[in-house]
Amino acid sequence: MSEMLANPSKGHIEVRNFSLSYDSIEGPVQAVTDTQIHVKPGEFVSIVGPSGCGKSTLLNAVAGFLKPTTGIVTVDGERVNGPSAERGMVFQQYSLFPWKTVRENVEFGLKMRGMPRSQRERAARTLLGLAGLEAFEKHYPDKLSGGMKQRVGIVRALATGPKVLLLDEPFGALDAQTRVIMQQILTNMWQRLKISVLFVTHDIDEAIFLSDRVYCMTARPGSIKAEIPIPLERPRQQSMMMSSEFLALRRGLMSLIREESLKAMGGEITDMGMQGLNIELHGHSLADVI
Amino acid sequence: MPATAVAEAGPAPAAPPKTPPKTPPSFGTLALRWYRLNQGRLRATAIGIASLIAFLLVWHLLTTYRVVFFVRFTNVPSPLAVYASFTKAIHDPKFLMHILLSCRRIFIGFSLAAIVGVPLGLIMGRFKLVHEIIFPVAEVLRPIPAIAWVPMAIMLWPTNEQSIVFITFLGSFFPILVNTLHGMSLVDPVLVRAAQCLGARERSIFREVYFPASLPHIFTGLTVGMGVAWVSLIAAEMISGQYGIGYFTWEAYSLVQYADIALGMIAIGVLGLGSSLLIRGAGQLVMPWRST
What we know:
By secondary structure, chain A is an alpha/beta fold.
C-alpha cells in the first residue's frame, strides 16, 4: 500500500536564502528573513515558534501559495512555482469540501488527475479502509467529529501519492485527547509511508513526539534560531513523553521559544504602555508551572 | 497504518450499544414516544390550522355584517362568495388560460434571468475585470423597479407578450445576480487552496469549488428573484396585459365582479407559494449536503 502512496526515494525539500516581505502603507514588512531549511527524503521535520513568527508563511511558500521575495524553494531540485499535487497539504481548518462526501473528498485529487471513476472509487475505499473510515465514506464532512475530519484531510492529501506532505497546525483545532490520538495515528502512518513531512505547530510536545528534527524560529521577522535533532527511538509511543530524554529536549526547546515569545509579547506590551507589569517574572513562573 | 491504532483511536460513534435484547415495545408506548418526539411540530401544525380558520371566520364576520370602521367592508366579498366563484372558475377554460399564461410568462422570464444571472454572477465573481466593467451599470439599473420599465419595455419590444416577459425577467434578474455575486465573494479561500494542492486547475476549481460553494446563495437569489418576478408580472399584466391572472384581477374590478378580485388575489398567492416551494425543493435536491 505504501508504494502506492508515496515514493520514499524522493521528496527532498530545500529552502535557501529565503525571505518574504509584503507591502503595507508604512513600507515593506519583513515576515520571514534569511532562512535556510531542508527536509531529507523520508524525514519528519517540524517548525515551531511563537505565534506570528512566519512559520505558516514559510510552509505556504513551500506549498507554492506564496512567492519568496528573495531566495529559492526547491523540491528534488525543481523550483517551486505554484501549488501542485506533488506537495500534499493538510490545513488546520480541515478544509474538506462540504458538498462532497468523505469518499468524494478523498477521490478529488485522483479525479483531477483524470483517473476513471470506478478506479478512483476503489482507490478511495482502500485508503479510507486503512484509516478506519470506511463506514463513513458516504457521510458529508459536517456530520464528522474534528478528529475524523482531519483523518479524512490527511488521507485526501496522501491519495495522490505526493512527494512531500505539508501540515499547517493540523491538530490545532482539536481537543487535547483527540490531538494525542491524532499524533499517534500520524506517526504510525509516517512510519509506514516514509514520506517527507514538513510540520508546522506551536505545540512543543507535538513537535518533539513526531519529528526527526525540529526547527525553532525567532520572533518576527522570523528566521531559524536553532535546529534540534530528536534522537528518540522509533516507532514512537505516547509513553515516551514521560522519559527523561523527552523531558530534556522539551526543556531545551521550551526555553528557546520562551525567549522569543517574551520578545514578541514584550514588544506589544511596551507599545501599550504597560511596562509596569512584571512580565519577565510572569513568563518564568508560567513556564515553571508547565 | 496499523489497524489497532485506528481501532483505539476512532471516536467510534458506529459501535453498536451492547444492551440485552428487549421485548418489542407495545403500540401504545410507540405512539406515546412518537408524540413526544413530534410534540413541537404537532403543536405548530395545530396552531397554524386554527389561525387560518380564525382568519376565515373574521373575514366572514366582517363581510356578513358589512363592517365600516375606517376600512369599508361594504363591497368586500365574503369567503363563501369567493368559494362560489372559485367553483365556477375552475370549470371556465378562460380562467385556466389566465393562470396558464401567467405561469408561462413567469417560467420564461424567470428561467432567462437564471440562465443569464447565475453565470454572469459567477464570472463577475471570478474575473475582476468583468466585475469592474459590469458592476457599475448593474448598480445604476438595479434600483429601478421593474414596473418603472413598463413604458420603456413597450417601446423596446414588438409585442405586449414580449414586454411582459421582459419585465418579469428584469424583476428576477437583479436579485439572482446580486446573490450569486455575494456567494462568490464568500467562498472560503482555504478550500480553493486545498483544491489547488490536489492538482485542480482553473476550470476544475470553478466547477468543483466556486460553483458548489456559491449554490446556497444562488438559491437564496432564486427564491427572492421568484418573489419579485411575480410582483413584476402582476403589475405588468395589470397595466398592459390582455391575459394573465393579474389582468383577470384588474378586469374583475372593472366589471364589478368583486368575488373575482379576491379569487384572483388568492390565486396569485397560491401560485407564488407553489413556485417558491418548487425552488426550495430543487435546492434540496441539488444540495444534499445541506439537508439535515
